[in-house]
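Co-fold these.
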Amino acid sequence: MAWLRLLFIILVLRPLAVLITGVDVVGRERLPVRGPAIVAGNHNSHMDTLLLLALFPSRALARVRPAAAADYFLKDPALSWFARNIVGIVPIDRAAARAPDSQPADVLAPAREALARGDILLIFPEGTRGEPGHATMAPMKNGVARLAEACPAAPVIPVWIQGAGRVLPKGAVAPVPMTCCVLVGEPIRWAGDRAQFMDRLRGALERLEEQAPPLRWR
Amino acid sequence: MPALAHKLSVIGLSPVTVGLLAVSVFLFLGTAAAILLPRLRAGTGFEDLGPRMVSWWVMIALLTGALALGWRGTALLFAGVSFLALREFLSLAPARREDRLVIGVAYLAIPISYIFIFNNIYLFYLVFIPVYVFLGLPFLMAGLGQPRGYLASTSAFHWALVTCVYNIGFIPLLMRVPHWDAPQAGAVGLVFLLLAATEANDVFQYVCGKLFGRRRITPAISPNKTWEGFLGGWLLTTGLILLAGPALTPLRGVGLWTVALSLPLAGFAGDVTFSAIKRDLGVKDTSGLIPGHGGILDRIDSLTFTAPLYFHLLAYFSLATY
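Predicted complex below.
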């Protein structure tokens, strides 16, 4: 199935992403081509995953695995097949993570295993798609810090995706072509403190956002 | 030049081939400059010349390929150029959340315009965007029932459609001129002179500005442009058109002089006008699509002004088709 995924990404997803968004990249050379690595981005749209997949060089694609919500992507069989085999998601069980009373489930286990295998994990720390065009991100969950702690060998690369929320906002059915810009930042390494790590990641994302072309979306 | 063109055509080279050879000579010179200048004078702003020249090679290869394929190939290439330019413009323009649908619909102006070009329905092409899209899109937007920021958005959308789609479409329309109407070098010769003169004007202005630039011409809009660059570009491009025009087009006498003198002015006007738009939007480049140049709008800004002017002057002075 791996070859089918590679073919689909190179022949369908990548041209589609270029046609719809232009895939304007700043700092492409900072994208990891070897795992283990974590790419952490802001999340406004399903286009985000498509854009990031379209960005990686073909030789790295086999290793690139987007972390995605199990409750959303695994609920219907067709979508589930597509998400697992073509997009290559690492399922994260948000429902188990939210349940307050039960035993704290180890929802990040699949993501940790992927990193241990040497994969490049794409993760959206907001945990859900935020409001499109809003200047601010939704508050980030610290799962990304826990993953960096569990796998200190993996650098965390901050990525700001500008404009994807206009192309395909939450709830919209069809994408509308608009330029998207992806800004790749300097890698952040685990230094022993979760809160401090999250602050550095937030700061890095905010600095990338400042460099992004303006969104005139009122 | 006509004599030279005649001699060359005797040994089997068409005027357009000669023109392409001249363009490649300049490309090689530019490439040599891109390799040598940063080594000779480091830190003097020649660093982006390398990617700039690579992009020139790619763009000229694409254009040559499309022109060789004939009017259909050229029409498809410029439909693509219009799509990319419109996407850039609509992504930068101030728009309202509700306008997503309108932006999606605005792209349809491209296939519809090109249906008119492919079927040679010149009259419909002429009125479709400036009259009917002009009326239809604002009506659609009114239907969305959101009056906030309405006029600003409709104006931006219409500006985008006229410059990026309508004005660029005059190039494939020129490609539909039959050979008997432009016997010197056919329709390819007409389009080749327009593209060569417009881009040469940009390059001449840039080079003259770099070499002799002193006095700023539009300090508030585009601080890098100088009177020296503008006048140098005007003089050199006028000379180029006077030399190459008779070999490539049926333009003679007053018609030739009018095109030669006005086309560089239109190119400069397009450049400055888009600079004003970019300044208003707060961006330096319209995107990062073409390495060393910026976005596609940064490259075709002057062309959106020169293409209609050139078309109408040719039509008035020399063509029976339009």
